[in-house]
Protein 1
Amino acid sequence: MDRLNAAHQFHGRITHGEIIPAREYTSFTMNRGQVLRIIDLEGQQVADVICFNRDDPTEKLHNARGVRLNGTYKPTAGHILYSDECNPMFTIVADTLGENFFGDSMCSEEMNFVRYGIRGTRNCRDNLTMAVKGWGITKKQLPGAFAPFMSVSFTPEGRTAITDATSRPGDYVDLRAEMNLLVAISNCPQDRNPCNGFKPTPLEIAIYQP
């Protein structure tokens, strides 16, 4: 906690902090009004974030709602992450990079095989499945992920591509909980495209009470 306070300015009291090793995952609960900070420690590392209404886990993050209601695929400070019931779940209250993605998809065993012809890879879908298993949530019940620090390009013709990661050491995004939440994060293990600079590295998270 002391190291976190020394390295980053927090506008409140830290109630939880941890480092997520490269390719690993975590899960935790949050109370409405608390803020989650996700910190890219070494640069060029993507987080995949999902969340559920802690009081009714059948309500969950829905990025397509977020795209429509915010009018952008690339949310930043001031934008809202909505549930499938169109209720606010998180508000982005700070963002040092301004490069996040509402893409809804995530790397998976199945997608890695289709794209790269390989089996047995670490991936966000399996990470997040393990992260929420203790709450009785299955792989088929996972929502699509919100991806802080992910860089995706768009052409006028509608084509998209994952592009070189641009986050720097110490970049962070702050997400304020707008309801009581169950949150899971995969520290993206993908090393077959440039989303993590081809080299997954640790992330750090902190929850603070403003």
Protein 2
Amino acid sequence: MSYLYDVFVSYRRHAEWTPWTRDHVRVLLDAYLTQELPEKPRIFVDEQIEPSADWPHRLGDCLARSRVLLPIFSGDYFNSDWCLSELDLMHIRLGRFPESQLIFPVLGHDGELIPDEIARITPADLRAFRNTDLQRHTPRYELFSEAIRRHAPDLAAAIDSAPAFDSAWVDECRVRFDQVYGWHCGRCAAPALISITRKPRPAISVPRVTP
């Protein structure tokens, strides 16, 4: 058993944002990383999991066998136990191999909920291009493409820095996602994050309308 993917894209699924991630981010990453790596990059987006697969175990396998995590930090990313577990598991691995660059964060929102342990890693800021109606062959898309191109060498360097694969990561990831699945099915307690601290979402103050 060895690495299967170079990049694992971690994002909060949504009817509008999934196509943005799959059809734009992944496609441009593939195009520009192809210029930086000796072989065609292998990029995982969770829509690649087969409908008949054991979802928690397949997700665990894919994360465990990925060199770098690319989390897209959206406002709702931090409401997802799946996303936070992906981030936490890779952060645990990073703690074992601090010389590596195993997390390559992308800022898609304001970032105020990013855990302090992750906030110290400088993100790629793509907020200006995270738009559900982003259109190809426009000046804005050209700027988006250029932003991905600028970050591709650093992402390639992060991929190259990955440590030797450890098959124990597969069981570690499978167990965590079994816990998340059990929590959502009401069979067990919520999994505890052990390397990052979930920030509370700030209360929204709604102004009172005086008639």
Protein 3
Amino acid sequence: MLTIPNFTDRCSAAITEKGTILICGLDPQLRYMPAHLVRMMADKYSRSLEAIGRMFYEFNKQIIDAVEGYVFAVKPQMAFYEAYGVWGIWAFQKTVAYARKKGLIVIEDAKRGDGGDTATLYAAGHIGEVDFFGNEEDPTVLKTRKSPIRVDCITVQPGIGSACILPFAAAIKQHGTGIFVVDKSSFDPNSEVEQLVTVNGIPVWRETARLVRVWQAGTEGSQYGYFNIGVVMGATFPNDAVEMREELPMAWFLIPGYGGQGGTAAGAVVGINRDGLGGGVNNSRGIIFAFRKGQFAAPSEQFAIAAGKAAKFGRDELNHALTEAGKQVFRN
């Protein structure tokens, strides 16, 4: 059990305080950026990678300001940032810092997966501490410090197994951070690998859940009792969410697929426990690009206002679904 401040205890406290299980995904794409923002940054910084990095950060900052009252966490997907090199990573770092300043929990969607020293460095860089120079007298006597890209939680691929997950578990026990093991993704059709049947006669995703029960030992929070090694459980497969919850009664679920991928609010809350805790529901495109089409469509200059309206709608729709399912709903 973790007696230090930890990811799932902080998530639980944030949900009870703010009255929302909604997470906003921060996945900026140049092709979908507000036109006025594209013109402004291209004029100011020329057509450069710097312009894109600065635009992504400005976009994210305005989105965070608009949605902070309706979400308890944000989830930047690293792929959208690292594609633009140094300036993309700069935008990621600035976004993480700004979200923290606003009191939001930060979940990095990066799906790292490797073993040995590589897994140890992934864990150190994203949810732990990295080696750094020692003192002036002898910089070779190393100390550690937080990485500039450190977040509260990161998604991890389980394919390599314990050699990958255990270094992350060690970082969690030391620093109170968390991981989500990619288990049942939200893509439709679902992953061929996740659906493969093992020699035990059950699909790979259920075997993975059983492994998670082993890996998560000793990572439970002391306040709410949820483990800090959780799973990705897509909102698009509510029937499987029931089985996942049976396997992992006190795991935290990251629930993608609500909104843009077709998952419903009712399907998204299936994996939430009766206490109203145990998971967060992510919506990315449906919030940050709400200005582009649909009921919240608006001029480019009002993209953040549209995002705020979409986030409020999502919060309320999910809370209604929780009520209909007979589960605890917290009101802020």
